[in-house]
Amino acid sequence: MRRLIGIFFVAMLSLIFALATGAQGFSPPTQLHLTYPPLRHTTTSDRLFFIGTAPKDGNVSINGKPISRSDAGHFAPSLPIALGENNFNVKYVDLVGDRNSERQINVKVLRESRITLPPRDIGFIKDSLLPTVDIARQLNERICFDAIATPSATVLVRIGDREVPLLPRRRNVQLPPNSSVLTGNNEATVESPSGYFRGCTTFEAASPLGQPEYEMRLGDRILKQRAIGKIEILSPKNIQVAEITAISADARTGASTDFSRLTPLPKGAKGLITGKQGAWLRLDYGGWVRESMTKIEDSEVPPRSIVRSINTKRIVNKVDKNNIWTEVTVPLEVPVPISIIQGDRTFAFTLYNVTAQTDTISIDPDSIINKLDWVQTEPDKVTYTISLKPKQQWGYKVRYQGTNLILSLKHPPILSSSKELQPLNGLKILLDAGHGGKEDLGSRSPTGYPEKDVTLISSKLLQNELQNRGAAVIMTRTDDVDVDLALRVAKIDQEEPLLSISIHYNALPDDGDAINTSGMGSFWYNPQAQDFAKFINAYTTKRLNRRDYGVFWNNLALARPTTSPSVLLELGFMINPVEFEWIIDPQQQKLLATTLADGITEWILNAAN
Question: Tens digits of per-residue pLDDT, 507-536?
């Protein structure tokens, strides 16, 4: 589930499933069992699936209407959910022999509106008044004020010496969540704009403006309320610089984790602060970083640098002779922000707040670089494009060593001369069995059987198959233990394997179609992993005659490491009543492991040549 709708949803659903039921394993059901939803559930979806099971010699109904079940007795119908409170009665009637026993489960589902509704009486929705946190902006930068208020009222905001009228918003477009692309519901909707107000302005003088005061007039009634956050306009004379203190700081397109990731900034990188919002800082190249990952210092001038000579050299790992890198060294006066874009056979990195004076570039003939070009795309931005010899990229690392930027590019693996017997001899592959432990159960089947158990089974079977082919397999877990997500990622960066594969089984958000959704899916983030994700998905589904759920670019923690092509595989849907039986079949599990190992081997042999 973590792969589809993010860490928040998997934590939520895992907890819900844990509270709703205990794991029931492989034994046939002896009574009515409901895995999902829990007895009390809140959602914003207009439909909801009911996942469960019951003895097959009987009938199951929901609110008096019979539902279809698999041959094993499992069910997963999706039912419409109205706004407000919905009550469901799930009933099982045993009709075997002379018996006519029944069991019932009552479920209460509250569907909330996706949008915040305006107050019925005169008033503001408090959390709608912007800003909700302290913010700082530059001179003449546009600042907007929002409010959700009584629809027929007149609304304005006072800030500094300004009165800014807020006008009703003509359209209130609701974007679907990122997970909607996985359920086929990826369309924006236009909701009624009644009660939504907005107004914008700019400020020409640096000043701490304080909290804006919102005022509403409705007839002869006046209501005033201050926003929680304060506004400051930054002075161009007071220069503040943020230096990255974390090993790697995630940079975002906006001031929260809801915004998209940019290239992480390595430790030591410095940028001029051009904005603040709560716990986030905006740097002059455009990215936002957490203030907790930085050190702020006053400066007389913004951090700027020139770039002169660049050199490259081949580096062999002393412990693992198959772990070979090309290092590109770029001397700078100050560590600056960086962004990276990978192509099929190109690797481009952009340095910000930099002017090129590059006349000499040295390329090691034993490196994997064909040539290195540069272009000054803007007065303070230089892009370097590396043309690579190999047809497949195998990983990269970025760090600052003092003020020197060190970019490391991994070489292709050296294949064994006895590849017919052990084609993967000595090649390091990391397998991550998803979830684990008492708290992180993952998705749950109609019987309540947890994803964490089958991912461990599948990973151990695949480990054995890869070892038979000569691979050195690293496992993030070999027992039912909870391994922190950050530790799994750190293991990949520490081991620097040839490939990193995270094994999972799938689920869906509430508006998904559990009965009709099945198959294997592959998820990648860095372009170096795309080819493998596409290949292994097509190879496995074709060989096993399974449905192909698709190959997706997705911002997942276990797909983000750059030291190797890293993918996350969803090998089937736990919540699908029929596919679940295939997932837990021991013979099919062994066949799946053999097929995956064959596909991994074929891809490596083709990509490394």
Answer: 999 999 999 999 999 999 999 999 999 999
Name the strand (E) or helix (H) holding 537. Answer: helix 530-544
The backbone region for 437, taken as left when phi is positive above 0, alpha when psi lies in -120 to 50, beta otherwise, is: left
Q: Crossing angle for the helix pair 586-608 and 530-544, nearest 10 degrees?
A: 140
Considering only CA atoms, give the Rg of the chain: 28
Instruction: Give 48's contacts (C-beta < 8 A, 6+ positions apart).
Output: 37, 41, 78, 79, 81, 109, 510, 511
Q: Which architecture, in CATH terms, is 305-410? A: Sandwich (2.60)
- Domain-by-domain residue ranges, the chain? 139-233, 239-299, 305-410, 428-608
* 250-279 confidence digits (pLDDT tens): 999 999 999 999 999 999 999 999 999 999
The C-alpha atoms of residue 202 and residue 141 are separated, in whole angstroms, by 6
Q: Quick check: do 139-233 and 305-410 share a fold?
A: yes
Residue by residue, DSSP assigns 85-138 as EEEEEEEEEE-STT---EEEEEEEEEEPPSSPPPPSSS-B-GGGSS-SS-EEE-
DSSP-based three-state secondary structure for 187? coil
Amino acid making up residue 71: D
CATH of domain 139-233: 2.60.40
Q: What is the pTM of this model?
A: 0.91
CA–CA gap between residue 314 and residue 326 (Å, rounded): 5
| Nearest-angstrom CA–CA distance, 582 and 26 | 12
Question: Residue 145: which residues within 8 A CB-CB, separation 6 or more?
Answer: 129, 130, 157, 159, 164, 166, 198, 199, 200, 212, 214, 227
**Residue range 239-299, CATH number:** 2.30.30.40
Give 388-437 as a 3 state SS string.
ECCCCCCCEEEEEECCEEEEEEECCCCCCCCCCCCCCCCCEEEEEECCEC
Dihedral of alpha carbons 334, 340, 343, 344, sign:
positive
Homologous superfamily of 428-608 in CATH? Zn-dependent exopeptidases (3.40.630.40)
